[in-house]
Amino acid sequence: MLVRDDPALRRLLTVTAVDTVGRGAFFTLTSLYLIGIVGLPAVTVGLGLTVAGGVGVLSSLGFGHLADRWSSRRLLVALHVVQGAALTAYVLVRDLPTLIVVASLVVLAQQGGASVRSAAIGRAFPGEDRVRVRALMRTVTNAGIAAGTACAAIPLAIGTAGAYRVTMVAAGALFLSSAVLLLGLPGERVDARPGPRAVAGPGASGPYRDTKFLILTVLHGIFGMQFGLFEIAVPLWVVHHTAAPDVLVSPLLLLNTGLVIALQVRLSRGTSDLRGAARVMTWAGWLMALACLLWAVAGELPGFVAVLVLLAAAAAHTLAEITSSAASWTISFELAPADAIGAYQGVYGTGFALGAMAAPVVVTATAIDLGAPGWGLLGAMFLAAALATRFVIVRG
User: Fold this and answer.
1) How does residue 59 score in pLDDT terms, banded at 50, 70 and 90?
2) Calpha distance 396→389 (Å, rounded)
3) What residues have CB less than 8 Å from 154, skipping those under 6 apart?
4) Contact (Cβ atoms closer than 8 angstroms) between residue 357 and residue 53
5) pTM, full prediction
6) CA distance linking residue 99 with residue 105, whole number of Å
7) CATH 1.20.1250.20 placement within the chain
8) pLDDT tier for residue 192 given thresholds of 50, 70 and 90
9) Is the dihedral of CA 146, 233, 306, 323 positive or negative?
């Protein structure tokens, strides 16, 4: 009903679908292209992408503030143009300096766009619809990335430099086409701002003096490391530390994507207020603790049993991902004053970006290097972050 009755939402979802098809195809090929086609050493690629990640942290923060001052629609259009051009410019990368410049532009536009888009949603939709809109967008995102990843199989099968480059240029072109679609968004809606008297409460002086919000931002970044756990530690654990076949990595990732597509909207219900978010976040913490336990146990089991346990771990992990995402959207919106929503979204997104930067080191130093005890530490960390989130919301 919400999608059918709201043309602005339909356009946002269309843009999301187009973007994520391009992103799924592009990021499936990026490392393989840079290492296998361009010939850059893996350590050089890692360094360039790490530097770009740092730019993304600053971009999330900066563009959140800009979204409170400038037109969100115009910012999104400009960032899509930058990202489309930068994705296309990957075909010109030949060394570390050019990689840093191009990758930084891509991540700047991506992270900055996330903050601006969140601010636009916060302004365009009433409180009870915001979480549902984010859930719909995340569902479309996962479907789009899955479709883009499938498209990437074509250049992978062909295996030539030309096939890679054509696909990467096509991904850039999709972002440029999205910029045109964004021009049709109603600016009077996504850019609407209340008068100066609309701000009230402890956040009126901005997110940097809002202690409760900053604590929740840090906890959000810590729990957000679960994305890095699934993307980095789980494939390494399955391949090198379990008796399950290596090919299982792909079905685990497909299970994750499929469950998000099927359940994100449904499981986001009941999180439209802070107390509901606190309750759901507690469930997410226990689910992550269970998932970490199952990931660890799978390393001690024979092949077929290990496969079953790994599938159960992936399901528990994905349910934690779905519920924690819904809770985090409510927290970021409900604690933000009406005329500083962009700044709050930027700060909240920065917490997540910092967690994403730390995740590769944290998850490999625990789960992979320490084995079962490391999984235990991660499970305890996620559970503690979830319970602390509930405590801060209810008692803070």
Assistant:
1) very high
2) 10
3) 163, 167
4) yes
5) 0.86
6) 10
7) 2-193, 202-395
8) low
9) negative
Residue 162 confidence class, pLDDT cut points 50, 70, 90: very high
Angle at 114 between CA 223 and CA 109, to 5 degrees: 120
- The predicted model gives 361-377 an average pLDDT of 94
CATH class of 202-395: mainly alpha
Which residues have a Cβ under 8 Å from the Cβ of 237 and sit 6 or more positions away? 295, 298, 299, 367, 368
Query: Degrees (nearest 5) of the Cα angle 336, 228, 285?
Result: 60
Q: Which of 342, 348, 63, 339 is nearest to 201 (CA)?
A: 339
- Provide mean pLDDT across the span 42-64: 88
Please tell me the predicted confidence (pLDDT) of residue 1. Answer: 54
Tokens of 121: 């949603």
Cβ neighbors of 88 (< 8 A, separation 6 or more) are 168, 169, 172, 173
Distance, in Å, from the CA atom of 251 to the CA atom of 39, rounded to the nearest integer, reads: 30
State the number of CA atoms in the 13 A half-sphere of 278 facing the CB. Answer: 15
Contact between residue 227 and residue 321 where contact means Cβ atoms under 8 Å apart: yes
> What's the pLDDT at 110?
93
Average of pLDDT values for 299-313? 96
pLDDT at 198 over 50: no
Mean pLDDT across the chain: 90
Greatest extent of the chain over all pairs of C-alpha atoms, in Å: 64
Residue among 255, 252, 283, 256 at smallest CA distance from 267 = 283
Measure the N-to-C terminal CA separation of the chain; round to a whole number of Å.
36
Distance CA 141, CA 133 (A): 12
Rounded Cα–Cα distance for residues 328 and 339 (Å): 20
Instruction: Give the Å distances, CA to CA, from 27 to 21, 153, 266, 336.
Output: 10, 12, 28, 33
User: What CATH number belongs to 2-193?
Assistant: 1.20.1250.20
Contacts (Cβ under 8 Å, ≥6 apart) of 188: none
Residue for token pair 């320490």: 370
Q: How far apart are CA 346 and CA 57, in angstroms?
A: 9
**Among 215, 242, 198, 241, which residue's Cα sits nearest to residue 340?**
198
Question: Residue 393: which region, alpha, beta or left (left: phi > 0; alpha: psi -120 to 50)?
Answer: alpha
